[in-house]
Amino acid sequence: xxxxxxxxxxxxxxxxxxxxxxxxxxxxxxxxxxxxxxxxxxxxxxxxxxxxxxxxxxxxxxxxxxxxxxxxxxxxxxxxxxxxxxxxxxxxxxxxxxxxxxxxxxxxxxxxxxxxxxxxxxxxxxxxxxxxxxxxxxxxxxxxxxxxxxxxxxxxxxxxxxxxxxxxxxxxxxxxxxxxxxxxxxxxxxxxxxx
Length: 195
Prior knowledge:
Radius of gyration: 19 Å
Strand content: under 5%
Number of helices: 9
Shape: elongated
Order of helices and strands: HHHHHHHHH
Largest sheet: none
Number of strands: 0
Oligomer: single chain
Helix content: over 70%
């Protein structure tokens, strides 16, 4: 026998509640990029055009919100790879666009780096989740571009993603443009004579 409370806890979230949570996650991601993960909750609420109580109703702790933002961005990248293969001019164009999106993600992740290295056990599974979801997507893009003869074969997706992360680690300044350097790295994958 179940009680009304049990029924409510087991029900899927309503569509409007899911949309509200997604709006909060997107607002938090934008604020994290500009102000870091320690940004005041009121700043996130203002960007999402809601009260702070709404944020706490969906994400009772800052850690819950950080994990939700991270997972949301990883999922968007994971789903974006196959979609780009279908919609781009070719596999190399899909790879280039996906890497550009990955750079955007890494820029956001820089704000999360200190938190992800914290002693809080709720963050422990995030790195493994990141690798589990994104390395296969990058591998698929690399394999498709190699099969089309657009890049040299045998590229290691983990190594490429690690290289992009390394180039982005210092951020961008007037004298250092991480996105331009990542573009040079991806251009270097082209097969000799590739267009």
